[in-house]
Amino acid sequence: MIRLMGIDPGLRFMGWGIVDVEGNRLRHVADGVLATQSGDDVPRRLCDLHEGLMRLIQQYGPAEAAVEETYVNRNGSSTLKLGYARGVALLVPALAGLSVHEYGAMAVKRAVVGTGAATKEQVSMMVRRLLPGAEVRRADASDALAIAICHAHHRASARHVAAGVRMA
User: Fold this and answer.
1) Which of 48, 64, 140, 143 is catalytic?
2) Is 20 marked as binding a ligand?
3) What number is the average pLDDT over the span 113-139?
4) 8 included as an active-site residue
5) 79: containing domain
6) Which sites are catalytic (predicted)?
7) Contact predicate 128/143, CB 8 Å
8) Residue 103 and residue 66: Cα distance in Å, rounded?
9) Considering its fold, how many domains does the chain have in total?
10) Domain contains 84
């Protein structure tokens, strides 16, 4: 059994999700959102995200983390701030000794729904189906769980390739 953490970076809301993986079985452990105050300055918000992620890693003890890659949008300032949050999402697990993996939004959607063109609603519905009992209340947390599921699938495929297992 291995415990994985998925992180959906955001400066205002950073989604996180924890799943246990045993063979091809996934089990929901926990999920939520780290929220910062929009009135605080950016350095304070980044500190809050750092402290929150450190607490989660200490509390749940994941072995690996997966972070969604950022897409560039038209608003350069928003993209830059999202990049700051993404830096924290990559740095904190790395400092804690976890291996950190990155996946683009389309790869996550393909792994969870089967198509890179899936809507947020479709991703959320499949997360609930793949993780029975998960009562995900926020889209950011659902996205983080989807990232963890994506990593679990990619991790299993890589292990099969390394072991020389032929896939049908």
Assistant:
1) 140
2) no
3) 91
4) yes
5) 2-163
6) 8, 68, 140
7) no
8) 7
9) 1
10) yes
- How many helices (H) and strands (E) are present in the chain, helices listed first? 5, 5
Instruction: Tell me what pLDDT residue 163 has.
Output: 64
Q: Respond yes or no: is residue 22 known to be catalytic.
A: no
Beta strands in 43-131 (DSSP E): 64-68, 99-103
Query: Could you confirm whether 140 is annotated as catalytic?
Result: yes
Give the DSSP H or E segment for 161: helix 139-163
Length of the chain: 168
Query: Chain centroid to CA 107: how far?
Result: 12
CB 11 within 8 A of CB 140: no
Tokens of 125: 């519905």
pLDDT score for 160: 52
Query: What pTM, to 2 d.p., does this model score?
Result: 0.91
22 marked ligand binding residue = no
Interval 57-71: pLDDT, tens: 999 999 999 999 977
Residue in 31, 64, 68, 143 annotated catalytic: 68
Domain-located, residue 68: yes
Residue 168 belongs to some domain of the structure = no
Q: Are 53 and 74 in contact (CB under 8 A)?
A: no
Which helix (H) or strand (E) segment is 166 a member of? Answer: none
Q: The CATH number of the domain where 101 resides is what?
A: 3.30.420.10
Asked whether residue 102 is domain-assigned, the answer is: yes
Q: Which pLDDT score is estimated for 137?
A: 87
